[in-house]
Give the backbone structure.
Amino acid sequence: MTALTSPVRGSAPPVLARCRELVRPRLREAVERLHPWVAEMAAYSFGWCEVGGAPATAPGGKGVRQALAVLGAEAAGADGRRGVPAAVAVELVHAFSLLHDDIMDGDATRRRRPAVWQAYGTGPAVLAGDALFALAVDAVAAAPEGPGAVRQLSAALADLVRGQADDLLFAARPWTGPQRVTAREYRAMAEGKTGALLGCALALGAALGGAPRDTVAALDRAGRHLGVAFQLVDDVLGIWGDPAVTGKPVGGDLREGKKTFPVLAALASPAARRLPALLGSAEHAREAAALVEAAGGRTAALAEARARTAAARDLFGAASLAPGAAGELDLLLEFLVGRSL
């Protein structure tokens, strides 16, 4: 699952820090209820401690999902604290997904530290991920809207798993021919893998804040559009991004032969006939990047990201959202994807 590490330069909007301060005590309380060893692994994954439990201030995530949940409640006109159970739940699900994702992808590092499975072992990391998921369900089950909230979270998780399954299966499919991955399939994968939890964060926060059903549904759709837009921008940065910003080598996704949207879009052009032979090679990564761009892959990805961003903004505008929260949602969207477009 994609971690929403900001792909843009500039300072983070203050809403992220505000929401982190609101949610962190409840998130820590939840983690502390786990078995001590499992709690340590969870705390390590959040950057709160080192292996062995010594306190740490390692970089953690920016807390985008928890901010969306708080803003969902505020968009409904409620106090942001109403959205905290949703914020805790989506943050725990995100952490669970990253623990398992690193194992599936064989990624040895996460946020410039050994991944949990590298630091503690594969079996313990799977166990820690399972525990975080159980905590997430408990976080929303205790809310007054518990049954509906659990169903909403479960539906988002089902979409997330479906998207991750498709992403894993894409790796084994050919670049060309009738079995190739299509742009339409990629969009559906990205909406599940990245967008489902963003939509759930907004919608669940709004539901706990007392928003009507049509507003909850609109925010869910907006979050899904935002997730696809972010994934597309992330794809562009995975090929042409500045390593100082992305933390990845130039052309990293091409070296790994990942089926990203710019590549899939480029392959639809006769100009990219030579591209499949260049993919998955460090030696030919720069040549492949130039060919993807010449074949229109970069342009297509950014155009799609703009369209998804506009769709999210349209949904925000059409819903009856509290003005302050609506403004902060727009700033957050701009921070995540806007300035990279």
The first helix runs from residue 14 to 32. The domain at 14-340 is CATH 1.10.600.10 (Farnesyl Diphosphate Synthase).
